[in-house]
Design brief:
The chain is an alpha/beta fold. It has helices spanning 26-35, 49-55, 63-77, and strands at 41-44, 84-87, 94-98, 101-105. Strands 1-2-4-3 form a 4-stranded mixed sheet, with no helix packed on it. The longest helix is centred in the middle third of the chain and has 15 residues, at 63-77.
Length: 115
């Protein structure tokens, strides 16, 4: 799932260097939440706030990472077996395991996903 909040949106020009479609819309969130029980991996541009806070102390809450936070709460609550969550956006390489979910924040690292 794509989408993140651009941290430098104020310095960009709408529809030239920043697009509103960068941020997930209601329909995309609804589809993601309605299908989370069918997933075994998640690939997203941003990730849950609690995970990001563990690896990057200066991360700020926003609508996207808080929506992903609600998603991870659903995964934990319903014991959905997610083998891995792969996140971009933060320009760091870091792996973290929380409650049986492997979170991989990727920048330079390349990982092979086995079906």
């Amino acid at each position: 799932m794509g989408g993140a909040i651009s941290t430098d949106k104020e310095s960009r020009k709408r529809d030239v260097s920043w697009w509103e479609q960068e941020e997930p819309n209601y329909s995309e969130w609804t589809k993601a939440f309605n299908n989370i029980d069918k997933a075994n991996i998640i690939i997203s541009h941003d990730g849950p706030y609690s995970i990001l806070k563990e690896i990057k102390k200066d991360v700020e809450k926003n609508s996207v990472n808080m929506a992903f936070e609600e998603m991870i709460k659903e995964i934990y609550k319903n014991k959905i077996n997610i083998k891995g969550w792969y996140i971009g956006h933060h320009h760091i390489d870091k792996c973290l395991k929380m409650r049986n979910v492997n979170f991989n924040i990727l920048y330079n690292n390349i990982l092979k996903l086995n079906g």
